[in-house]
Amino acid sequence: MFLIYGLSGQTFKGTLEEMIRVRSLEKIRPNRPVAHEGWEAGVDLHGRSAGGAHDDAVRAYREVVKDEIQRGPLYHANQIMQRPVITIFSGDDVAQAWRILRDHHIHQAPVLDDTSRIVGIVTERDLLTAINIDEGRVMEYLKRRVSDVMTTPVVAAEPVTDIRRIAAVMLETGVAGTPITSGSGELVGFVSRSDILRAVVTDPPLSLWR
Contact 120/129 with Cβ under 8 angstroms? Predict the structure, then answer.
């Protein structure tokens, strides 16, 4: 189950298939073409093949895979998510937010408003639009708040959500992480691309193709 949070609160809750029909999802996408990232995986959010050489590769793979091979283990967000979650407040200045990411050795964090409600996500790349870094130190920065540079609305998922579907949303929206929220909207975890990659290579391996 996926949810969309913005400055006005929760605006959507439903399945992946329902979410791709929500117009507000368009606002989440970054300026660069999302298709470039989808091409890396060979599929898009709708499960369609990206075409070209990837089509041939997928067909070739499926032809050699025996029918008796079992599907890999299923992983849910609550099995791989990070907790507790490092968060940033929308009213923090960009330099302060950068230091939080640096001090915790992370590249992104969910953004909360002054009532601790999730309203977005901010990355190092977002912050670099307003700060000048030299050898890891903030040299100068524009007088901007996190709310000025963060991505909003943000797609979140509930704890019992297949991580393959979360990965599809990451590719489509161009973000590298997904907040995990409880049924009441409380932030309970965070899943990054690195978390998903670790699940893919674990033993037994997660099957991505069947």
Answer: no
